[in-house]
Amino acid sequence: MERPERAAAALGAQPRANGCSGAAHGGLRNGYVRGPPASDTQIDRIVHNGGLYKRPFNEAFEETPMLVAVLTYVGYGVLTLFGYLRDFMRQWKIEKCQNAIEREEQKDFVPLYQDFENFYTRNLYMRIRDTWNRPICSVPGAKVDVMERVSHDYNWTFTYTGRVIKGVINMGSYNYLGFAQNNGACQQAAAKVLSRYGAGVCSSRQEMGNLDKHEELEKLVARFLGVESAMAYGMGFATNSMNIPALVGKGCLILSDELNHASLVLGARLSGAAIRIFKHNNMRSLEKLLKDAIVHGQPRTRRPWKKILILVEGIYSMEGSIVRLPEVIALKKKYKSYLYLDEAHSIGALGPTGRGVVEYFGLNPEDVDVMMGTFTKSFGAAGGYIGGKKELIDYLRTHSHSAVYATSLSPPVVEQIITSMKCIMGEDGTTFGRECVQQLAENTRYFRRRLKEMGFIIYGNEDSPVVPLMLYMPAKIGAFGREMLKRNIGVVVVGFPATPIIESRARFCLSAAHTKEMLDTALKEINEVGDLLQLKYSRHRLVPLLDRPFDETTYEETED
Amino acid sequence: MQELERGSSSESVPRSQTSPSACVSSTRPRLLPLGYHFWRPLRRKQANKQRSMRARSSQHLQQARMRARRGDGSLVLFCRVKMNVGVAHSEVNPNTRVMSSRGMWLTYTLGVGLLHIVLLSIPFFSVPVAWTLTNVIHNLGMYVFLHAVKGTPFETPDQGKARLLTHWEQLDYGVQFTSSRKFFTISPIILYFLASFYTKYDPTHFIFNTTSLLTVLIPKLPQLHGVRIFGINKY
């Protein structure tokens, strides 16, 4: 693994092959790496990213067309007005109220809930509720069986028809390498371990829950990541929320990306450190925050911060963007802070051998101080891990809340992780793992290219297996989900307030288990639905990210 | 009162460890004239300080005391980050950003234009009546949606901080003189000018237009942020 300082020298060398035919430095298209690399690369200049990237970094977030934005607001406006009308009718008993209401005896009390806060749920969400929480009744592999349900009162209640929709192409599961299966080597190994160890551990790691399987897993994870030591936990969410408080505390500073996951945000909040947010993937914003933090120190006393921790994710699952890791590491070294990288979605999915975003950029895993990830996505199991230096992990073994209080991983799950990880590394004697990683990369490139050619607006990086397709209008959210299910494809749709108001989207998660035929079928149906719903908004105007002005006047709530 | 003085007097003492940033003010902050900030928006801490210096009533004084204690003159923005379950961003209250998002101003302008055209199409209304009606209905709608309805139509992870705040008070988390606020302050004034012109300054129309303009301009004043007169619309 080359260090960033030598990245410039390596720029002319063989590009990595992650399904990407790469290009010499002259052909890099991303607008970031420009010109020949300087012969003497100092760290200060690397911050302005001359020669940090060995491969094209193509990320695009096409701007919303103005007409679409106006129509989206009109749509929300009409829905709001109808919502008020329906509320009025419900209040005057013209229409039956299906929501829970206060009891008659308690009408004069101070109300428990403010019914305006429920406005969006009962007037907008209920109308398209059937696109979410669909019960499935098979293993969520490349294809899944969905239980059919109908509603006779506009989604307030559902009844099962008894039919099962079989063979729905699953574009919603985080099944990146296709290990979510109920047959195969992983399943057999897990079944054997289940009959030997049982299902539960009945204790936390520190008491009686430390099995030899856990030790084996941790050594394997450390070897997989290329770090000194690792520790595994039972729940991915709990890994973040319970370990960040163990690493930082009062008097420390956390610099967190705008779009970080709730687990990172919760962990940061529980730690008691000061939190500052930088704009999503915007290195100038991050550098400004770092400079200000070091120059001004802590708020009132001006003392230097005890620690500065940068929280980023490998792949952001709602945007499909990949973190600019070379620049983050260069910044981290320049300002002497620590880096916590959450590879929940990128481990197994990026990099020529699936080692994650660090390998994808060709960096040294020792540069990342805390490498966190989950086993839920690419390994088909459950749980999370943290990898890093031996002193760090030994400290976490005693100080982490997860280690002390939470139950340890269940043995069959551990065996699933071990088998799948060995498969990815190629240690089970086959090249199946490597093929999966390459298949995923090919699927990603193919799917994204085809969707862009069709004219949809797709967010995110070209190599990210998470593909958000923009829908924008509230009615299209429901329509897209339903039409796709009619055509036997299961997708995940997201709308306001989970996303910004004009950026509702459908999110496809690609898998190595998807064959080209499945992708072609899916693309054909998406094309049809796109024509039907008029979703092809793209005008092929890619906004280069460098030109996006860094808005200094952001107004955020102050700290208490 | 004493805490206010303490807060402001600490600003005039020069710090022994001065940071090289030019933004840290070591002089006593001036009380700038009221209209000054309309064109040069302040950052939140400065806005709070200005507001705290103008505070006279006890309610404002209490809030001002809380804010003066927090302020220290530094220009770095602090952010409170909440756990947002199931959302793709760390925005605590999406309502604060709605009015400044892309295309909102255009939609609003088109909506007002559509309302006017509909009113003009009704054969019973003369042009002055149509203009006055546009003005009045627009101001009525603006009052109801921006200054009467409180809270958010969805649950926010900040445990209901904005439950008693109208949408206007929630905009940009309470920072005054942002671009959205300026836009939505100027647009009823422009509509008033147009209505006055097209009604040829007729006295009856003037009374209607002016009163409805006042109902929509007075709640927008920064001095009336969070103020509920006679307890109307308090809870």
From TrEMBL, chain A:
InterPro entries: Aminotrans_II_pyridoxalP_BS, Aminotransferase_I/II_large, AON_synthase_class-II, PyrdxlP-dep_Trfase, PyrdxlP-dep_Trfase_major, PyrdxlP-dep_Trfase_small. The keyword Transmembrane helix applies. The keyword Transferase applies. One of its GO terms (biological process) is ceramide biosynthetic process. Its cofactor is pyridoxal 5'-phosphate. Its EC number is 2.3.1.50. Residues 167-526 form the Aminotransferase class I/classII large domain. GO terms for molecular function: pyridoxal phosphate binding; serine C-palmitoyltransferase activity. PANTHER family: CLASS II AMINOTRANSFERASE/8-AMINO-7-OXONONANOATE SYNTHASE, SERINE PALMITOYLTRANSFERASE 2. This is serine C-palmitoyltransferase. The lineage of its organism: Eukaryota, Metazoa, Chordata, Craniata, Vertebrata. The gene is SPTLC2.
